[in-house]
Design a protein that fits this description.
The protein is mainly alpha-helical. The protein has ten helices and no strands.
């Protein structure tokens, strides 16, 4: 009996933004889905508008699993995770142990297929997609901030500014395009999106 997929299903039990007052709680499963959708879109934008050859399906798959180690580690708040190089290094080690634990829930013959999805990207193609996944992760967080502010929760204002700056600093034309063309719609009501 192997527990990998049952353990993955627990992503819905990991809440994000633990240090922030939320009008609506976001779980890891929701965030991973949204990040996958955005990573797919960024790869499509790269190919369609910027002459790239990214695999949108692979970008989406990498994004779906990008935070899966948090099933074991929990969601460490960003201010804590990045407080110092020493803490960030220690957290990377904890993530590595968590990745190995998750892989241990799979039959031996499936582990090599899932290892890159769990954050051990080894192929040049996967490494080339990681900036898109990273950007999608940040954009998903910006969307959370926009949604919270739309509900009157100004607690997310500073986080939104910092995350917008983080996306811009990536210097990815695909991410800039998404931010300019698609992000503004998240500030609108359903009726306004018609």
């Amino acid at each position: 009996m192997f527990h990998f997929f049952a353990v993955l299903s627990r992503m819905k039990n990991i809440n994000r933004w633990g240090l922030m007052r939320n009008t609506r709680q976001e779980n890891l499963c929701e965030h991973s889905f949204e990040t996958a959708v955005i990573a797919h879109a960024l790869a499509v934008l790269r190919n369609t508008r910027f002459g790239g050859s990214a695999d949108p399906g692979r970008a989406a798959a990498l994004a779906l699993f990008h935070d899966s180690t948090e099933i074991i580690t929990g969601d460490m708040p960003t201010p804590v995770k990045y407080f110092s190089p020493k803490i960030r290094s220690a957290y990377r080690e904890v993530e590595s142990v968590a990745r190995d634990r998750l892989l241990g829930f799979l039959p031996e013959d499936l582990r090599d297929s899932y290892r890159p999805l769990l954050g051990a990207a080894e192929s040049p193609e996967d490494r080339g997609l990681l900036p898109l996944v990273h950007a999608a992760d940040k954009i998903s967080a910006v969307i959370k901030c926009v949604e919270e502010k739309r509900m009157g929760n100004m607690e997310f204002s500073s986080a939104e500014t910092a995350l917008r700056d983080a996306v811009a600093s990536l210097r990815l034309p695909e991410a800039d395009c998404f931010m300019a063309e698609f992000l503004p719609s998240f500030s609108l009501t359903l009726d306004e999106q018609e």
